[in-house]
Amino acid sequence: MTTIQHFTVHHDGVTIPVSRGGRGRPLVLCPGLNSTQADLHALSEPLRRDHDVVTFDLRGHGLASAADRYSFDAFLRDLFAVLADLERLGLPSPPVLVGYSLGADLAVRYAAECPDAVAGLVLIDGANPLPEPFITDADLPEFRAMAEDPARRRGIERAMGTARQVLLTAQDVLDLQLEMDVVRSAILDRYQRIDCPIHMIMSTSIAGDSTEGRAPRHNRLWRAGIDRLVRERPHISTSWLDADHRLVFTHAPEIADIIRSAHPRPAG
Questions:
Q1: CA atoms within 13 A of residue 106's CA, in its CB half-sphere
Q2: d(CA 244, CA 188)
Q3: Quick one: which of 207, 231, 202 has its CA closest to 217?
Q4: Cα 63 from Cα 186, distance rounded (Å)
Q5: DSSP assignments along 14-65, one per residue
Q6: Residue 134's CB: how many other CB atoms inside 10 A?
Q7: Which of 127, 151, 175, 197 is most buried by a 10 A CB count?
Q8: Helices marked H in the chain — which ranges?
Q9: Is residue 268 one of the residues assigned to a domain?
């Protein structure tokens, strides 16, 4: 049975809980918006068989403390703080960064700024250089309705006080989603600064399989962004899963296998 170490990182007025366990190549798993390290348990556990896996919670998520502001740069500081603490503890080699959704974008930004500190990237349904904004003015009412959906609110309330809680408001979430369009509009430049191996794991139907409403446009746009990326950076490999944006929960075993194939345990 794998022994898991738990410790906390204090920075920027927030407390970030970190878990580490497994053996082999270091791997840091960065969650996305509205997801926690507890949510990613089904992915992190099989990876621990041949990776030294580190998981953590972003501010306002899981067992991390709340913050005054939730922005891309604020979450990026959380990732930098966790990796700085791991460096202080003495990782045997640079880690592979695995990011889901927003976590993928954070991983790309970190790797672009610290290219020698990363052995590879696995980006799950995020960090997509979309050719146009994902959320238009016409989409805003639907996204607001999704954020304020009563069933979603009940789920949030049930998770309060647990390792799966999310403290962000519906407006915080919408603001982040709008900010991500701005971040992704400039992400191609970030990819140009990264030399390590990159593997994308993407959903074929990020917005679901409906043929009506916003889903068809968003699914086409999601595919177009990756096509654009591979044209610009042909060394980047991609796996497509027949899933929506919940793929990290619904297809965790398959994703773990892809990660282990892309970054196998060194021989010896």
A1: 28
A2: 24
A3: 207
A4: 32
A5: EEEEEEEEESSEEEEEE--TT--TTTTHHHHHHHTTTEEEEEE--TTBTTSP
A6: 21
A7: 127
A8: 41-47, 72-89, 102-113, 140-147, 150-159, 170-185, 187-191, 215-232, 247-250, 252-262
A9: no
| 266 inside domain | no
> What span, in angstroms and rounded, lies between the C-alpha atoms of 61 and 176?
14
Residue with tokens 């993928």: 104
Whether 111 and 199 have beta carbons less than 8 Å apart is answered as: no
**How does DSSP classify residue 161?**
T
Would you say residue 227 lies in a domain? yes
Q: From first to last of its 268 residues, what are the pLDDT tens digits of the chain?
A: 678 999 999 999 999 999 999 999 999 999 999 999 999 999 999 999 999 999 999 999 999 999 999 999 999 999 999 999 999 988 889 999 999 999 999 999 999 999 999 999 999 999 999 999 999 888 888 777 777 778 777 887 898 999 999 999 888 999 999 999 999 999 999 999 999 999 999 999 999 999 888 899 999 999 999 999 999 999 999 999 999 999 999 999 999 999 999 887 765 5
Between CA 139 and CA 122 the distance in angstroms is 29
The count of structural domains within the chain is: 1
Rounded to the nearest 5°, which phi and psi values hold at 164? -110, 10
Phi and psi for 73 in degrees, rounded to 5? Answer: -65, -35
Residue 140 resides in a domain? yes
CATH of residue 15's domain is 3.40.50.1820
Residue 126, SS3? coil
Range of the domain at 22: 5-260
Task: State the Cα–Cα distance between residues 119 and 117, nearest whole angstrom.
Answer: 7
